[in-house]
# Entry
Amino acid sequence: MSDEAAVRVGHFSTDAPNVDILVNGETAFEDLAFEQITEYAELPAGTHDVAVTPNGSEDPVLEVTLDLEENTSYSAFATGEVGEEDLQCTVFVDEPGDIADEQTHARFVHASPDAPSVNVQVAGGGPVLCEDIGFRESSGYVPVDAGTYDLEVVPTGTSEPALSLPGTELTAGTAISAIAVGKLDDGSLGALLVEDTA
# Structure
């Protein structure tokens, strides 16, 4: 068994510049732009000091200590806004479980700072896949039959979609995260679809 963990980093702070990620004082990722997410990088299990700095700067805008368990994968996302002084590192454990050959394990991650809690559902009155997901929260993984779906992100308790995701392809045997990024009030709200470790 490996004694390492896997970590990827996402930049979802709407008003932060491109950033560098330092792990234990050493640069791990450089020039990460808004809405970008890195590949997984292996780190020894244990405690690591992580700093986020504007690209080319030595002055951190965010510092956090990560406690990593062996044989576990993590997503560490910068969320919130620098101007609102609520920039945070939001960490999720990526454990989709055993995936059947004909299914996808999908989760929704809410990283939009001004969007309300939401449901994710199949468009046209279809089933609700996950409910009442708030900012900096994840739905957890939901088994879904593989295929192509028209999905909607709808504020909880309403029927009008805040975001439409037509033609969302869920590939058999994979795990994916749909990450809501950007802001609702300025029309920049969107979603990234990324494959997770399985």
In short: The CA atoms of residues 69 and 96 lie 16 Å apart.
